[in-house]
Amino acid sequence: MDVKKLGKFKKILQDRKDKILTDQKLSLFQESLKLKSEEFTDEGDAATQGVIRDLDCRLMDREYEELKKIEAAFERITRSPGLIIFETPVC
Questions:
Q1: What is this structure's pTM?
Q2: Neighbour-count burial of 55, counting CB atoms closer than 10 A to its CB (0-12 exposed, 13-18 middle, 19+ buried)
Q3: How crowded is the C-beta side of 8, counted as CA atoms within 13 Å?
Q4: Which long-range contacts (CB under 8 A, 24 or more apart) does 4-8 make?
Q5: 27-68 pLDDT per residue, tens
Q6: In whole angstroms, how far apart are CA 83 and each of 12, 86, 87?
Q7: How is the chain split into domains, by residue range?
């Protein structure tokens, strides 16, 4: 793979990594704000918050797995810049 394409893929990977990390920081901040307001909820609201929290955890797990794949791709790029083999899709 030529240097131009390699740089393009590195930028795509870095942009995606930055977006995931920024979204997670924002999500954690919003979660801390929700915890303060949950003290005054009824049972229905508490159940809804539980479902939302479960979905957020699944999303964070998925993003963590994607980050691991991005880091692995960076390692492969660094290790052998002339021959890039993607084991699994990064998207």
A1: 0.65
A2: exposed
A3: 5
A4: 6/77, 6/81, 6/84
A5: 766 666 565 555 656 777 777 877 877 888 888 889 889 999
A6: 18, 10, 13
A7: 3-78
